[in-house]
């Protein structure tokens, strides 16, 4: 069948209601790309991964003939064993390999937890400015997100307490409190230990579990992090997810869930994909067991240097019209422009000039408040591209909104 005949069939009447809008055909990355969660290509441990591929395939390659590499449905056991040691050393989490499920990135982890716990019409609590992927998923599921404002120390516990109390008076029990407490996306904040304790007390008092997303916790500049909420919980009311996307490589698509068996057993029943990518798991286990603790500090230094370049370039090009807090880690800068700037419109104009940004309303449940904010990923572009891209962005913003003056 030729392509013209195939293209003539009308699928539109067959599409169910409620699908997301159709996407445009991908035409390649723009010249100055400050979007997404891409990482620093120069800091990717390529030679180490090549060596790991060779070693693990020669030793265990024939196990690829079996779904799950003969490790069962929860993922390659050596990778889960590595995570047991890493989570204990870094986050204070005491768990076993049987408490961990390997997923196809943290996005599948989000989907699986949501599928396990949520139904249309439910309510959840979420950070007001938060990961777009989490917000969009809740919207598509017909779940109501209650946004809690953040300050420079993360989620405001007074606002969380007020929201939980208000929902209780209305007879609504939220299904979970979703939080990125350690290098929050997009703000880069870290929730202090005292607030973590207060959040756990509120969780226990209201019978609402915590859904802890720890995807950026390896990228703290100081290398020192507070214990995970999962580690601090005495009653097991925390589901914890993480990823190798930010510490090693996003294209590998490997994440994980740490959860009690009563949740894990139901989640496993929903993970019907035959197992996440096996070769990726094998390579990560081989590489990370020997090299993770050496690689991540080098990655942090590379990312911090790029952040310095971005902050300096913003100050030089936007002057006093730009506001941001120096994040404590991660790959994003959350930027505030004057009230007259609409970053959804700025996004379109900047894209036409070869600069891609993430407009703030896409990363907030309070879209009007985030109208003049944008998220910039500094990990992927080079130092020169950061400088040139910010210069171009300032020129576009001046043309469209008179900012900077």
Order of helices and strands: HEHHEHEHEEEHEHEHEEHHEHEEEH
* Structural Rg: 22 Å
Strand content: 5-15%
Number of helices: 12
Q: Which strand order does the major sheet show?
A: 2-10-9-8-7-3-4
Write structural notes for this entry.
The protein is built from 12 helices and 14 strands. It is α/β, with parallel strands linked by helices. The protein has 2 domains: 126 residues, Alpha-Beta Complex (Aspartate Aminotransferase, domain 1); 246 residues, Type I PLP-dependent aspartate aminotransferase-like (Major domain) (Aspartate Aminotransferase, domain 2), CATH 3.40.640.10. Strand 3, helix 5 and strand 4 form a beta-alpha-beta unit. Helix 4 crosses helix 9, helix 6 packs parallel to helix 7 and helix 10 packs across helix 12.
Short description:
The protein is of the alpha/beta class.
Could you outline the blueprint of secondary structure elements for this entry?
Layout: H1 3-7, E1 32-33, H2 46-60, H3 77-91, E2 100-103, H4 105-117, E3 123-127, H5 132-141, E4 144-148, E5 150-151, E6 154-155, H6 157-169, E7 177-179, H7 193-206, E8 210-213, H8 229-232, E9 238-243, E10 255-258, H9 261-270, H10 278-318, E11 332-336, H11 343-352, E12 355-356, E13 358-359, E14 373-377, H12 383-401
Parallel strand pairs: 1-12, 3-4, 3-7, 7-8, 8-9
Antiparallel strand pairs: 2-10, 5-6, 9-10, 11-14, 13-14
Helix pairs in contact: 2-10, 3-10, 4-5, 4-9, 6-7, 10-12
């Amino acid at each position: 069948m030729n392509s013209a005949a195939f293209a003539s069939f009308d699928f539109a009447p067959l599409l169910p209601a409620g699908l997301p809008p159709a996407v445009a055909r991908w035409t390649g990355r723009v010249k100055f790309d400050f979007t997404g969660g891409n990482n620093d290509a120069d800091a990717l441990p390529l030679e180490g991964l090549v060596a790991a591929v060779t070693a693990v395939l020669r030793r265990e390659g024939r196990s690829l003939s079996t779904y799950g590499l003969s490790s069962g449905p929860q993922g390659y056991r050596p990778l889960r064993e590595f995570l047991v040691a890493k989570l204990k050393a870094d986050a204070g989490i005491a768990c076993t390999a049987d408490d961990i499920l390997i997923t196809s990135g943290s996005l599948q982890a989000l989907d699986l937890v949501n599928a396990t716990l949520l139904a249309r019409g439910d309510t959840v609590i979420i950070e007001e400015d938060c990961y777009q992927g989490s917000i969009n998923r809740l919207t598509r599921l017909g779940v109501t997100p209650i946004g809690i404002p953040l300050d420079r120390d993360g989620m405001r516990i007074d606002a969380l307490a007020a929201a939980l109390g208000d929902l209780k008076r209305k007879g609504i029990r939220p299904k979970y409190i979703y939080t990125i407490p350690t290098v929050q996306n997009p703000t880069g904040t870290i929730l202090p230990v005292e607030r973590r304790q207060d959040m756990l007390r509120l969780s226990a008092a209201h019978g609402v579990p915590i859904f802890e997303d720890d995807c950026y916790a390896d990228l703290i500049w100081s290398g020192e992090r507070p214990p995970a909420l999962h580690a601090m919980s005495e009653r097991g009311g925390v589901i914890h997810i993480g990823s190798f996307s930010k510490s090693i490589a996003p294209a590998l698509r490997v994440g994980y869930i740490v959860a009690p068996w009563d949740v894990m057993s139901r989640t496993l029943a929903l993970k019907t994909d035959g197992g996440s990518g096996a070769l990726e798991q094998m390579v990560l286990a081989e590489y990370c067991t020997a090299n993770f603790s050496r690689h991540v500090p080098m990655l942090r230094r590379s990312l911090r240097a790029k952040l310095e370049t971005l902050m300096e370039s913003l100050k030089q090009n936007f002057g006093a019209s730009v506001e941001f807090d120096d994040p404590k880690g991660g790959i994003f800068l959350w930027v505030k422009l004057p009230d007259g700037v609409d970053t959804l419109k700025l996004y379109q104009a900047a894209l036409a000039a070869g600069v891609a940004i993430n407009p703030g309303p896409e990363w907030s449940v309070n879209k009007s408040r985030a109208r003049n904010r944008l998220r910039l990923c500094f990990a992927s572009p080079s130092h020169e591209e950061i400088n040139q891209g910010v210069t171009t962005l300032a020129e576009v913003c001046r043309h469209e909104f008179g900012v900077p003056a």
